[in-house]
Automatic annotation (TrEMBL), chains A, B:
Pfam families: TetR_N. Residues 37-56 bind DNA. It comes from Rahnella inusitata. The keyword Glycosyltransferase does not apply. This is TetR family transcriptional regulator. Residues 14-74 form the HTH tetR-type domain. Keywords: DNA-binding. Transmembrane segments: none annotated. It comes from the Bacteria.
Amino acid sequence: MLAPQQCSKDARISARRDQIIAAARLCFRKHGFHGAGMAEIAKTSQLSVGQIYRYFANKDAIIEEIVRRMVMKKIQLITGNAHNLQQIAHNLAHRRIGNLSSPFKEDVCSEQKEQAEIDHALMLEVAAEATRNPAVEKIWRDSEKQLFNEAKSFLSKSFPQFSDEEMTAKVESLAVICEGTAFRRLTTVHADAEVLEALYHRYFQDLFNTDFTPSKPE
Amino acid sequence: MLAPQQCSKDARISARRDQIIAAARLCFRKHGFHGAGMAEIAKTSQLSVGQIYRYFANKDAIIEEIVRRMVMKKIQLITGNAHNLQQIAHNLAHRRIGNLSSPFKEDVCSEQKEQAEIDHALMLEVAAEATRNPAVEKIWRDSEKQLFNEAKSFLSKSFPQFSDEEMTAKVESLAVICEGTAFRRLTTVHADAEVLEALYHRYFQDLFNTDFTPSKPE
């Protein structure tokens, strides 16, 4: 058991890290990883640069923690949703990735929406930076791998009849559709969501060789 | 008809623009849009900054031309391939987007591979930059729209039985899979390409309600 002062020290460290991460997210979103320096992150988080370095060794460590948190959020969403492929088809057709609504919809609170917008921008920033910065490439690859394996392990429980090889291909195909949908989020051509949902619905049924409960999602 | 000196003047302008674009692609790939300035592009293309401005009004104009050329390349690939959904399923399962092989394959010439790597990195850079720069957002959206409409118009010729609304959903679903596959190109988990190809194959057959010739692709 931890002594009370240890608890409060851990809580303080954790709060400081949260404060820095929140500031860094805003700075990276505004100027990209290259444009945002430690000085700007310090200023935005109302700490000194020296204080920042007590919590994160460098900018890559901050990026790593941001990606880690985004992946955790995605894993929570998967484990809350993956059993419901019908809901996933519905969300994809409406371009809802995580809490990320279509920019033209107004059905989640604005704070959630704002954070989801930042997640989306940072995901693209990480992917772009990964093509030229080996440290970020490693962070990105490791996080994608973790996410993939969590999704696969979760879906394997619901569909134990498939071999590991089959399951890997099915999860890859789902991951491609989820990430392609997120990538295309700001495109201007909009397919009719119901027609698109029916296509995904049929594909997922075929993919997992299962009938979904035909109850209306949401 | 153009006079000979007009022809050679046009050819000279065109060659200069190619030279600048090739240099800008390398600079953007290395440092991102923010990190690469006009001075660096000038130096890499062995021209003066003043000369660059005679061909492009600003950095955004260079980005626009780069995106325009990438879209043209993609449209050429579509019009060469879209009739062959079996080939598309094959390429997607092997993560071949355009001339872009899987980084672990060695089946296209190295110059093509290098240009395709740059295309991939620039596509991510454009998408990331589009989230914070309205000028690039417009370039990206317009190019995606053009590409979408070209693909749709091309596929509509092969499958005239579908309504406009149905076709839009089918093309969106294809676009999601193509761009999701490109996005996931550097991920480390690899599904077995044959198993994945079979999944896409069945989906595309269902999508266009058609049987593909079962001849082996390539």
